[in-house]
Amino acid sequence: EAAVTQSPRNKVTVTGGNVTLSCRQTNSHNYMYWYRQDTGHGLRLIHYSYGAGNLQIGDVPDGYKATRTTQEDFFLLLELASPSQTSLYFCASSDAHWGGYEQYFGPGTRLTVL
Amino acid sequence: DAKTTQPDSMESTEGETVHLPCSHATISGNEYIYWYRQVPLQGPEYVTHGLQQNTTNSMAFLAIASDRKSSTLILTHVSLRDAAVYHCTLQGGSAKLIFGEGTKLTVSS
To answer: DSSP readout, chain A?
Structure first.
């Protein structure tokens, strides 16, 4: 069965802090995605990648960096965290990004920036 | 901006059949209609998808209008475990899957 795991599950940091969110998938999928979910906005795509070393910009990339180190691992970096980045973050993976390939989501990381 | 429109909430009772509507008036020819559901403290879970024809699987039946501008997710014999937020979204040539707020389905016993 498809599996996407995220760590940590909860994180509290202060304004200006440095945060790394981790995601690992064991689906052998090419594509991985980072989303944030906020009340009133649904899920919004931050960054995505179609393979190790590749990075594509999503809809809300400002303040975020990402790195895909292997096919399995995708990291989201907040180098100067701000309260506006307090949110629920989801990682997902899929075989491809066009229609016909569903995305498999991780359990989420709740980030609070004080 | 979400490309789909769904009611904010719907209510049902165990054992009933529920019809969850979704409007996607600006859908492109290569876009698939996807449904995901999400319960608190978990990520969205794939339910079903379709392009033009109605589809069915163990989780739900997806009815797609002939002009593809709307669809309906049909859940039969709902149970308490079907209570969730149901997201209707479109996926095509872009990776930018757009989720709106979805429909919160409440199931009572």
So the answer is: ---EEEE-SEEEE-TT--EEEEEEE-S--SEEEEEEEETTTEEEEEEEESSTT--EE-SS-TT-EEEE-SSSEEEEEESS--GGG-EEEEEEEES-SSTT---EE---EEEEE-
The string of pLDDT tens digits covering residues A35-60 is 999 987 788 999 999 999 999 998 89
pLDDT over 70 (residue A98): no
| Among A42, A90, A106, beta carbon nearest to B2 | A42
Substitution target from A25, A43, A50, A95 for chain B, most B beta carbons within 10 A = A43
- And the tokens for A18? 């440095």
For B97, nearest residue in chain A (alpha carbons): A45
Residue B3 pLDDT level (bands cut at 50, 70, 90):
confident
Instruction: Determine the residue among B97, B98, B99 to mutate to test chain A binding: the one whose Cβ has the most chain A Cβ atoms within 10 Å.
Output: B97
pLDDT at B95: 60
